[in-house]
Amino acid sequence: MTNPYPQQPHDPYGQGQGTYGPGMPAPYGAQPPGPPPDNNLVWGILTTVLCCLPLGIVSIVKANEVNKLWYQGQYDAAQKAASDAGKWAMWSAIASVAIVVIVFVFVIAAGAISFSTYSTSY
Protein backbone atom coordinates (compact mmCIF):
# COMPACT_ATOMS: atom_id res chain seq x y z
CA MET A 1 0.00 0.00 0.00
CA THR A 2 1.34 3.44 -0.92
CA ASN A 3 1.21 6.54 1.23
CA PRO A 4 -1.71 8.75 0.03
CA TYR A 5 -0.05 11.87 1.44
CA PRO A 6 2.99 13.20 -0.39
CA GLN A 7 6.09 13.78 1.67
CA GLN A 8 7.18 17.31 2.30
CA PRO A 9 10.46 18.10 0.52
CA HIS A 10 13.58 18.26 2.64
CA ASP A 11 14.71 21.84 3.33
CA PRO A 12 18.53 21.60 3.14
CA TYR A 13 19.08 25.26 4.07
CA GLY A 14 16.54 25.48 6.91
CA GLN A 15 14.79 28.46 5.36
CA GLY A 16 11.28 27.05 5.20
CA GLN A 17 10.31 29.16 2.18
CA GLY A 18 11.66 30.47 -1.08
CA THR A 19 13.39 28.40 -3.68
CA TYR A 20 16.21 25.90 -3.40
CA GLY A 21 17.77 26.69 -6.70
CA PRO A 22 16.89 27.45 -10.30
CA GLY A 23 13.40 26.19 -11.04
CA MET A 24 12.90 24.51 -7.66
CA PRO A 25 9.59 25.33 -5.95
CA ALA A 26 9.16 26.33 -2.31
CA PRO A 27 8.62 23.55 0.22
CA TYR A 28 5.18 22.03 0.62
CA GLY A 29 2.98 24.31 2.73
CA ALA A 30 5.34 27.28 2.67
CA GLN A 31 3.62 30.63 2.87
CA PRO A 32 4.43 33.26 0.22
CA PRO A 33 6.47 36.17 1.55
CA GLY A 34 3.65 38.60 0.72
CA PRO A 35 1.47 39.56 -2.20
CA PRO A 36 2.69 38.86 -5.74
CA PRO A 37 4.80 41.58 -7.34
CA ASP A 38 3.26 44.07 -9.75
CA ASN A 39 3.22 42.23 -13.07
CA ASN A 40 3.27 45.42 -15.25
CA LEU A 41 0.51 44.00 -17.46
CA VAL A 42 -1.14 47.40 -17.91
CA TRP A 43 2.13 48.90 -19.17
CA GLY A 44 2.60 45.94 -21.52
CA ILE A 45 -0.88 46.39 -23.01
CA LEU A 46 -0.49 50.15 -23.34
CA THR A 47 2.89 49.91 -25.05
CA THR A 48 1.57 47.21 -27.38
CA VAL A 49 -1.43 49.28 -28.43
CA LEU A 50 0.18 52.73 -28.47
CA CYS A 51 3.85 52.12 -29.14
CA CYS A 52 5.94 49.29 -30.46
CA LEU A 53 3.96 46.10 -31.11
CA PRO A 54 6.68 43.38 -31.01
CA LEU A 55 8.33 44.56 -27.78
CA GLY A 56 4.95 45.14 -26.13
CA ILE A 57 3.90 41.57 -26.88
CA VAL A 58 7.01 40.25 -25.13
CA SER A 59 6.11 42.45 -22.15
CA ILE A 60 2.60 40.97 -22.02
CA VAL A 61 3.94 37.40 -22.15
CA LYS A 62 6.38 38.10 -19.29
CA ALA A 63 3.63 39.80 -17.26
CA ASN A 64 1.38 36.76 -17.62
CA GLU A 65 4.07 34.52 -16.13
CA VAL A 66 4.30 36.48 -12.85
CA ASN A 67 1.23 35.21 -10.97
CA LYS A 68 1.65 31.66 -12.25
CA LEU A 69 5.22 31.48 -10.96
CA TRP A 70 4.30 33.19 -7.68
CA TYR A 71 1.58 30.72 -6.82
CA GLN A 72 3.81 27.81 -7.80
CA GLY A 73 6.21 28.96 -5.09
CA GLN A 74 8.89 30.22 -7.48
CA TYR A 75 9.16 33.65 -5.88
CA ASP A 76 12.52 34.63 -7.35
CA ALA A 77 11.41 33.66 -10.86
CA ALA A 78 8.19 35.66 -10.40
CA GLN A 79 10.18 38.73 -9.33
CA LYS A 80 12.44 38.35 -12.37
CA ALA A 81 9.46 37.96 -14.74
CA ALA A 82 7.86 41.12 -13.28
CA SER A 83 11.12 43.01 -13.72
CA ASP A 84 11.51 41.72 -17.28
CA ALA A 85 7.94 42.74 -18.15
CA GLY A 86 8.66 46.27 -16.97
CA LYS A 87 11.92 46.41 -18.92
CA TRP A 88 10.27 45.22 -22.15
CA ALA A 89 7.47 47.79 -21.75
CA MET A 90 10.06 50.53 -21.16
CA TRP A 91 12.08 49.52 -24.23
CA SER A 92 8.88 49.45 -26.28
CA ALA A 93 8.10 53.03 -25.27
CA ILE A 94 11.70 54.14 -25.95
CA ALA A 95 11.67 52.48 -29.38
CA SER A 96 8.43 54.20 -30.35
CA VAL A 97 9.75 57.61 -29.28
CA ALA A 98 12.93 57.01 -31.27
CA ILE A 99 10.91 56.03 -34.36
CA VAL A 100 8.74 59.15 -34.05
CA VAL A 101 11.85 61.37 -33.77
CA ILE A 102 13.48 59.72 -36.79
CA VAL A 103 10.32 60.12 -38.90
CA PHE A 104 9.98 63.76 -37.80
CA VAL A 105 13.60 64.52 -38.75
CA PHE A 106 13.13 62.75 -42.09
CA VAL A 107 9.96 64.72 -42.89
CA ILE A 108 11.64 68.03 -41.98
CA ALA A 109 14.72 67.14 -44.08
CA ALA A 110 12.59 66.05 -47.04
CA GLY A 111 10.56 69.24 -46.79
CA ALA A 112 13.69 71.38 -46.64
CA ILE A 113 15.20 69.62 -49.67
CA SER A 114 11.94 69.91 -51.58
CA PHE A 115 11.61 73.60 -50.74
CA SER A 116 15.21 74.37 -51.72
CA THR A 117 14.94 72.62 -55.11
CA TYR A 118 11.58 74.25 -55.84
CA SER A 119 12.72 77.81 -55.04
CA THR A 120 15.88 77.62 -57.19
CA SER A 121 14.30 76.23 -60.37
CA TYR A 122 12.52 79.12 -62.11
Automatic annotation (TrEMBL):
Query: Which parts of the sequence are annotated with region: Disordered?
Result: 1-35
Its principal location? membrane
| InterPro entries assigned | CD225/Dispanin, CD225/Dispanin_fam
Where's it found, cell-wise? Membrane
Key word ATP-binding present in the record?
A: no
What is the source species? Answer: Haloechinothrix salitolerans
A Pfam family of this chain: CD225
**Protein name stated in the entry:** CD225/dispanin family protein
Q: Which UniProt keywords apply?
A: Membrane, Transmembrane, Transmembrane helix
The keyword Transmembrane is assigned to this record: yes
Q: Where are the transmembrane segments?
A: 41-61, 88-113
